[in-house]
């Protein structure tokens, strides 16, 4: 979304003044890109929003009503679902914005930027915490019971939410409703000569959103793999565990690495290390595309982390069975009452015929 990317703002990469038409200028988005934004992005954002809402709401429903939160893993799943819902909450606003101007005002622009980044950071933090939790459970079995409690889960979750909140403050502060070329936009607007903040936020996303988490994921899961090879585990369970580890790491890498690489290149552009107009245009396109792809990750999180577990699947099965049972009872009760009312009407009609 444009809370993160300032594709509409005037280019900071060069001091040249271009006098070309908006659609032909080498540094403009181009008419083709504008059409892509206005046609494809609203549909895509809506699909991601609905998918993420359904999957993560189901996770919350099962955790709160069926499974009960008793372990660190449960706390991680609960917080990850909330994070993903926060991450996609601005998407309906973004869907409208992609096809038109920003119409929601400056306050909503800042609030949505804050929510977006809170969801972004916290989602990645809780994925990382789940990796550490699994590492402790498998590699440090002796101390696992003491550490992997719901109490520790609550305390660590509070700390992570605070860190996510602080990390998202600069983005919320600098996001503003601005008028650019007769168009109302919601973009990060940094004061002139203060490009340090833009670079700081970009590197913050790179470090907290990819470098540190991916490093922890690789360390934890490599140690788990070594441990699984040494410990005697049923071959079927071992293969399932190893497969799940690869899915988690590969999904994280595929969905977040391209965006972070492009964001890093954009930082080099801000520092004038990359200083070509065509490159600037390509980076703007790449940022939009890679960020759009990264949204899919929050739809996959419920499938990867919650629905893949045997206990969770059993709870979901029971939940659906109870829903089907309720629907069947309701429909049978409705049909029964309909039959009774029809039968009563027939009887009353026959009795009136007798009187006549």
From TrEMBL:
<keyword id="KW-0967">Endosome</keyword>
<dbReference type="GO" id="GO:0060326">
    <property type="term" value="P:cell chemotaxis"/>
</dbReference>
<feature type="transmembrane region" description="Helical">
    <location>
        <begin position="76"/>
        <end position="95"/>
    </location>
</feature>
<feature type="domain" description="G-protein coupled receptors family 1 profile">
    <location>
        <begin position="55"/>
        <end position="305"/>
    </location>
</feature>
<feature type="transmembrane region" description="Helical">
    <location>
        <begin position="199"/>
        <end position="221"/>
    </location>
</feature>
<dbReference type="GO" id="GO:0009897">
    <property type="term" value="C:external side of plasma membrane"/>
</dbReference>
<dbReference type="GO" id="GO:0016493">
    <property type="term" value="F:C-C chemokine receptor activity"/>
</dbReference>
<feature type="transmembrane region" description="Helical">
    <location>
        <begin position="149"/>
        <end position="169"/>
    </location>
</feature>
<keyword id="KW-1015">Disulfide bond</keyword>
<keyword id="KW-0807">Transducer</keyword>
<comment type="similarity">
    <text>Belongs to the G-protein coupled receptor 1 family.</text>
</comment>
<dbReference type="GO" id="GO:0007204">
    <property type="term" value="P:positive regulation of cytosolic calcium ion concentration"/>
</dbReference>
<keyword id="KW-1003">Cell membrane</keyword>
<dbReference type="InterPro" id="IPR017452">
    <property type="entry name" value="GPCR_Rhodpsn_7TM"/>
</dbReference>
<dbReference type="InterPro" id="IPR001277">
    <property type="entry name" value="CXCR4/ACKR2"/>
</dbReference>
<dbReference type="Pfam" id="PF00001">
    <property type="entry name" value="7tm_1"/>
</dbReference>
<dbReference type="InterPro" id="IPR000355">
    <property type="entry name" value="Chemokine_rcpt"/>
</dbReference>
<keyword id="KW-0297">G-protein coupled receptor</keyword>
<dbReference type="GO" id="GO:0006955">
    <property type="term" value="P:immune response"/>
</dbReference>
<keyword id="KW-1133">Transmembrane helix</keyword>
<dbReference type="GO" id="GO:0019957">
    <property type="term" value="F:C-C chemokine binding"/>
</dbReference>
<keyword id="KW-0472">Membrane</keyword>
<dbReference type="InterPro" id="IPR000276">
    <property type="entry name" value="GPCR_Rhodpsn"/>
</dbReference>
<dbReference type="GO" id="GO:0005769">
    <property type="term" value="C:early endosome"/>
</dbReference>
<keyword id="KW-0675">Receptor</keyword>
<dbReference type="GO" id="GO:0019722">
    <property type="term" value="P:calcium-mediated signaling"/>
</dbReference>
<feature type="transmembrane region" description="Helical">
    <location>
        <begin position="242"/>
        <end position="265"/>
    </location>
</feature>
<feature type="transmembrane region" description="Helical">
    <location>
        <begin position="39"/>
        <end position="64"/>
    </location>
</feature>
<dbReference type="InterPro" id="IPR050119">
    <property type="entry name" value="CCR1-9-like"/>
</dbReference>
<keyword id="KW-0812">Transmembrane</keyword>
<keyword id="KW-0325">Glycoprotein</keyword>
<protein>
    <recommendedName>
        <fullName>G-protein coupled receptors family 1 profile domain-containing protein</fullName>
    </recommendedName>
</protein>
<feature type="transmembrane region" description="Helical">
    <location>
        <begin position="115"/>
        <end position="137"/>
    </location>
</feature>
């Amino acid at each position: 979304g444009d809370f993160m990317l300032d594709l509409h703002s005037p280019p900071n990469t060069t001091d040249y003044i271009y006098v070309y038409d908006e659609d032909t200028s080498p540094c403009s988005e181009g008419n083709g890109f504008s059409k892509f934004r206005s046609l494809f992005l609203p549909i895509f954002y809506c699909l991601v929003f609905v998918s993420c809402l359904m999957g993560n709401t189901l996770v919350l429903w099962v955790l709160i009503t069926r499974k009960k939160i008793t372990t660190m893993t449960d706390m991680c799943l609960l917080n990850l679902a909330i994070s993903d819902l926060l991450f996609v909450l601005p998407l309906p606003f973004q869907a409208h914005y992609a096809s038109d101007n920003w119409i929601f005002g400056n306050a909503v622009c800042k609030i949505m930027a804050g929510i977006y980044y809170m969801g972004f950071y916290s989602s990645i933090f809780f994925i990382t915490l789940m990796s550490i939790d699994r590492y402790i459970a498998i590699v440090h079995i002796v101390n696992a019971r003491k550490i992997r409690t719901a109490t520790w889960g609550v305390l660590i979750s509070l700390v992570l939410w605070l860190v996510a909140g602080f990390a998202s403050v600069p983005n919320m502060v600098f996001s503003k409703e601005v008028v650019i070329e007769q168009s109302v936009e919601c973009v990060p607007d940094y004061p002139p000569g203060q490009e340090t903040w833009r670079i700081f936020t970009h590197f913050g996303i790179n470090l907290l959103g990819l470098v540190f988490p991916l490093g922890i994921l690789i360390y934890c899961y490599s140690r788990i793999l070594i441990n699984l090879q040494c410990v005697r585990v049923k071959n079927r369970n071992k293969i399932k565990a190893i497969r799940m580890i690869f899915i988690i790491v590969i999904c994280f890498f595929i969905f977040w690495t391209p965006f972070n690489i492009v964001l890093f290149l954009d930082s080099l552009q801000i520092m004038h290390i990359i200083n070509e107009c065509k490159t600037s245009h390509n980076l703007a396109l790449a940022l939009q595309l890679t960020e759009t792809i990264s949204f899919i990750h929050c739809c996959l999180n419920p499938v990867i982390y919650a629905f893949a577990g045997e206990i969770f699947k059993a709870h979901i099965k029971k939940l659906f069975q109870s829903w089907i049972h309720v629907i069947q009872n309701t429909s049978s009760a409705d049909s029964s009452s309909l039959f009774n009312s029809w039968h009563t009407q027939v009887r009353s009609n026959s009795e009136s015929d007798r009187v006549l």
